[in-house]
Design a protein that fits this description.
CATH topology of the largest domain: Transferase(Phosphotransferase), domain 1
GO molecular function: ATP binding; cyclin-dependent protein serine/threonine kinase activity
Strand content: 15-25%
InterPro entries: CDK, Kinase-like_dom_sf, Prot_kinase_dom, Protein_kinase_ATP_BS, Ser/Thr_kinase_AS
CATH superfamily of the largest domain: Transferase(Phosphotransferase) domain 1
Distance between the termini: 52 Å
Strand order of the largest sheet: 4-5-6-8-7
Number of strands: 15
Largest sheet: 5 strands, antiparallel
Organism: Arion vulgaris
CATH architecture of the largest domain: Orthogonal Bundle
Radius of gyration: 23 Å
Keywords: ATP-binding, Kinase, Nucleotide-binding, Serine/threonine-protein kinase, Transferase
CATH class of the largest domain: Mainly Alpha
Family: Belongs to the protein kinase superfamily. CMGC Ser/Thr protein kinase family. CDC2/CDKX subfamily.
Structural class: alpha+beta
Length: 352
């Protein structure tokens, strides 16, 4: 059968490539350490590839419980997308869902922002009782994240519960995250479904994704196939390009902030440190980006930076996926700088 290398990602090809994720908790699959393997079952276009599919099926009898396929999505004209997004949210909801709520797709009278909010409130959006907490996923300084379930759609969600201080109100990171995610709509950026505000907390309702890239690499025993590395890197760059095109810096790229669902989709998350930039170089805080993924100029105290701050993090994450270990695992700022200069050399006047 043809080699899988000849069917990997190509610039001039839009063939679908699948890969399997063999979980460590699946001993019946016959693989150890959760290592990721490519799936030879390719979804090809045209009858000429029938022999390839048949040969692959004969060679592989084990079907992974998780198969990822990149499909060609139907392209829509920008006018159609703009028209659809301009519709009130209750009109964009599925008809069967609206039918259960006894709402009409064609409400009488002119639709205004106030009437749209009223319709969504009647459905149950913006109400904490519309969601059920299941498991606690993590806790930070200001927020606790729960796995939850929506009673409106029966789908799993992630509930980020932010504690409100009576004196200070909502943390600036929460306000920043909400304001940015309202405008960032992309397949490789986590979706903010709902916002719930009470006297004691602010809850952000996100789509639920099973694990982050750090957990994924740990499950693989830090051994990832280059096919999967390229798939994840492509999705990371595509989501980041969307942000940069809209003049938004993430500023906190790390494997823990890259979420992955069961179909292999990678999405940027945790925009608490993200910032919209007005000009290419503007003074910001240098207390951004986790130490291992922080560029040397920021480590040295620079507060003027632009999109390269994110691209440095992309390079570090790329190395970690490909080699199975962090590139610059410094324990302090001085240690981090020492590791960078040891590999890349000391900066000169030309490179500063």
């Amino acid at each position: 059968a043809p080699s899988l290398q000849s069917h990997s990602l190509h610039n001039d090809s839009q063939r679908a490539v699948g890969f399997n994720v063999f979980q460590q908790a699946s001993p019946d699959v016959g693989h150890e350490n959760g290592v990721v393997h490519e799936n030879p079952r390719l979804v090809c276009d045209g009858a000429e590839d029938e022999d390839i599919r048949r040969a692959a099926d004969e060679r592989y009898d084990v079907i992974s419980p998780v198969t990822v396929r990149l499909r060609n999505k139907q392209r829509r004209l920008s006018e159609e997308v703009t028209k659809r997004l301009s519709l009130p949210a209750d009109i964009r909801l599925p008809e069967n869902f609206l039918a259960r709520q006894s709402l009409s797709l064609s409400p009488d009278g002119q639709l205004t922002r106030r009437s749209r909010r009223k319709s969504l409130s009647e459905i149950g959006f913006g109400k904490i009782e519309s969601y059920t907490k299941l498991d606690k996923l993590g806790e930070g300084t200001y927020a606790t994240v729960f796995k939850g379930k929506s009673r409106l759609t029966d789908s799993l969600v992630a509930l980020k519960e932010i504690r409100l201080e009576h004196e200070e109100g909502a943390p600036c990171t929460a306000i920043r995250e909400v304001s940015l995610l309202r405008d960032l709509k992309h397949a490789n950026i986590v979706t903010l479904h709902d916002i719930i505000h009470t006297d004691k907390s602010l809850t952000l309702v996100f789509e639920y994704l099973e694990k982050d890239l750090k957990q994924y690499m740990d499950d693989c025993g830090n051994i990832m196939s280059m096919t999967n590395v390229k798939l994840f890197l492509f999705q990371l760059l595509r989501g980041l390009a969307y942000c940069h095109k809209r003049r938004v810096l993430h500023r906190d790229l790390k494997p823990q902030n890259l979420l992955i669902n069961e179909t292999g989709e990678l999405k940027l998350a945790d925009f608490g440190l993200a910032r919209a930039k007005s000009i290419p170089t503007k003074t910001y805080s240098n207390e951004v980006v986790t130490l291992w993924y922080r560029p040397p100029d920021v480590l040295l105290g620079s507060t003027e930076y632009s999109t390269p701050i994110d691209m440095w993090g992309v390079g570090c994450i790329f190395y970690e996926m490909a080699c199975g270990r962090p590139l610059f695992p410094g324990s302090t700022v001085d240690d981090e700088l020492h590791l960078i200069f040891k590999l890349l050399g000391l900066p000169t006047e030309d490179t500063m």
